[in-house]
Amino acid sequence: MLQVFTSEGQKGTFRILNQEENSVPHIRIATRRSPLALWQAEYIAAELEKMSPDVTTELVKIVTRGDKILDVPLAKVGGKGLFTKEIDEALFDGRADVAVHSMKDVPTQLPEGTSIRALPERADPRDAAATITGGGLDTLPEGATIGTSSLRRVAQLQARFPTFKFVSVRGNIQTRLSKMGQEVDAIILAAAGIRRMGMEDQMHEFIDTEMLLPAVAQGTLGIQTRNDDDVVNALVDRLNHADTVDRTRAERAFLARLEGGCQVPIAAFATLDGDQLTLKGLVGSVDGKIVIRREIVGLRRDGAAMGIALADEILDAGARPILEALYAEGSHG
Ligand SMILES: NCc1[nH]cc(CCC(=O)O)c1CC(=O)O
After folding, report:
1. Residue 3 has pLDDT above 80, yes or no
2. Sequence-ordered list of residues with C-beta below 8 angstroms from that of 327, at least 6 positions apart, any chain
3. Measuring from atom 9 of ligand 1, which residue has the nearest CA?
4. How many domains does the chain have?
5. Cα(186) to centroid of ligand 1, in Å?
6. Which of 113, 133, 150, 207 could disulfide-link 139, Cβ–Cβ 3.0 to 4.6 Å?
7. Cβ atoms < 10 Å from Cβ of 274
8. Phi/psi class of residue 305: alpha, beta or left (left: φ > 0; alpha: ψ in -120 to 50)?
9. Quick check: CB of 101 below 6 Å from ligand 1?
10. Both 14 and 104 in a single domain?
11. For residue 216, which of 106, 80, 114 has the smallest C-alpha distance?
12. Of 117, 186, 115, which Cα lies nearest the Cα of 147?
């Protein structure tokens, strides 16, 4: 909202709308300022501009609470929407028309009045590792120190490599990679982010999804708009990728049922084979001692129901006390 003095000298609050009816819009895109976020916003800006020679775009750069708190492991910061709340506000206030997010950071419940309108084609969903040996994680010595602040990665890798030690590293991709060989023997990052930054050659292993099941929607971008913005929505809708939409629906239904944020060891990964959808999911304890893993196969149009059913199956198989203990610790806001 914009506060200005009216001609009568009184303070008034106005919502600025940036497009006349029937005109091709100028689209303001809200984004965080990290190099990855900027790449993603510029990528979507280019996709929108491709749709019509008259579409113009502009980036609105926003600092979120998650960007400010860099010295605390994410699992301890808590709070849903750590990286999204201030961006939601820019959309509400009409300072921006579109927001571009990494879907893995987007809470399952969105603020009223906006929605994730489009999911473009998913990029590489895997995690990737850079190691001091220059080989895969299995080439590291016993007791190696691995940098990651993701409980999902710790839980799964601790189960497979019981001697490894895990330390939290925060900051953007560039900062985190710079700690390799200094504070840690390996760093694990999402492959999609690494590729977008053109840093593939610095990674030594793209980890198979069977060994390290990805975060819900890892590698997928989401485009958020105001529900009532018909002009922008008509354009943004065209960026949807049908397979990505169906996979994401199943993975996020699973997450929503578990009430999980990114601060909980939860993973889910959907794949498609024609009309058949396979959804794999797990919940782990942080020490890697328990990893409850199940999969469900069905029709792609039933993804949401499958996500819920898979979550219930994993809860019944023993995940309930794990999640309750984590939430009680306050790692979830
Ligand atoms: N949690 C931060 C975050 N959110 C999205 C990505 C990478 C891009 C993606 O997965 O879509 C990353 C970095 C990482 O986990 O290494």
Report:
1. no
2. 259, 264
3. 219
4. 3
5. 17
6. 133
7. 7
8. alpha
9. no
10. yes
11. 106
12. 186
Interface confidence, given as ipTM, is 0.93
312 shares a domain with 231: no
Complete DSSP assignment for 186-232: EEEEEHHHHHHTT-GGG-SEEE-TTTSPPPTTTT-EEEEEETT-HHH
Q: Is the pLDDT of residue 331 over 50?
A: no
Torsion angles phi and psi, residue 170, rounded to 5: -120, 180
Query: So what's the pLDDT on residue 26?
Result: 96
Burial classification of residue 218, based on how many CB atoms lie within 10 Å of its CB (0-12 exposed, 13-18 middle, 19 or more buried): buried
CATH of the domain at 166: 3.40.190.10
Domain match, 133 and 115 both: no
Rounded to a whole number, what is the distance in angstroms from the first to the last CA of the chain? 27
Q: Are residues 278 and 227 part of one domain? A: no
Same-domain status, 93 and 228: yes
pLDDT digits (tens, 9 = 90+) for 72-85: 655 556 566 778 88
Phi, psi (degrees; rounded to nearest 5) at 169: -130, 135
- Residue nearest to ligand 1 atom 5, measured at CA: 102
Q: Looking at the domain assignment, is residue 215 inside a domain? A: no
Domain containing 87 equals: 2-120+220-240
Last residue of a domain, one of 153, 185, 207: 207
Best mutation site among 102, 150, 187 for ligand 1 pocket (most ligand atoms within 8 Å of CB): 102
Burial class of 95 by CB neighbour count within 10 A (0 to 12, 13 to 18, 19+): middle
**Do 188 and 109 sit in the same domain of this protein?**
no
Q: Is residue 189 within 6 Å of ligand 1 at its C-beta?
A: yes
Per-residue pLDDT band for 332 (boundaries 50, 70, 90) equals very low
pTM above 0.80, yes or no: yes
